[in-house]
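Q: Give me the 3D complex with adenosine-5'-diphosphate.
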Amino acid sequence: MAGESSDPGPLIAREMEGGRLLFHPDRVSEPGVRIFDPGFWRSEDRIVGTHRGRGTVYVVEAGDDEEWVLRHLRRGGLPGSFIRDRYLWTGWERSRPFRELRLLARLEGEGLPVPGPVAGAVWRRGPAYRGDILTLRVPGRPLARLLEEGVAQPGDWHRIGATLLRFHRAGVDHADLSAGNILVHETRIHLIDFDRGRIRSPGNWADRNLDRIRRSAAKILGRERWKAAEWARCWEALLEGYEAG
Ligand SMILES: Nc1ncnc2c1ncn2[C@@H]1O[C@H](COP(=O)(O)OP(=O)(O)O)[C@@H](O)[C@H]1O
Ligand SMILES: [Mg+2]
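A: Here is the predicted complex, encoded as structure tokens.
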């Protein structure tokens, strides 16, 4: 009986020309290929912002005070290479968009501060696929920007530590926790960009998440500056937040 099977979650999959779509029925009333096309949003004059990630990230006006973030999935490195946005096909449910969206749905359901899942697309072609993902826009600016501007306060770091502990208690290994993937808002912290994230049993991956933040911050500030007392205090604050959590 149903009791044995795992919760399928709120997302619904649907076939489309050239691929498959996964969407949240409460958020997407007309699921279709056009919602993944920046040209569609531009023609409707509904692009309200862009960010440079590994590619261009579009913030779009989805209506009723709701903004979505549209990303075409890309790997880091290999600039200009044609394989930059191709991934090896191993099945719909194992594709990055589907895994990221299903994970976000689960984490949102647990009340963790992540962007709610909107929709994802997987475009299959032979042994490869490309993917797009839409999530709800969350408030805040990347920790990376705050570091570049030298304005990340110990209080922010403390809240980041406390937030990270909540994820770790839920067994969430983000796997790519750079300062660009931590959004800092006055009262809230969100983690974003979960395309390699997963739920795991306890292990030293939790320490690796912390180490990833530290190395990312040191890289942005420069090793010498990172050693300054000001930043040592910030790192202490993060650890305190993590321990106090
Ligand atoms: N759901 C979201 N809400 C608000 N901003 C977002 C969201 N997703 C991405 N961004 C912005 O876009 C940038 C790049 O997005 P990210 O998901 O980290 O993609 P990349 O794969 O390029 O690292 C982020 O640093 C952030 O500024
Ligand atoms: Mg990122």
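A quick observation: The mean pLDDT is 93.
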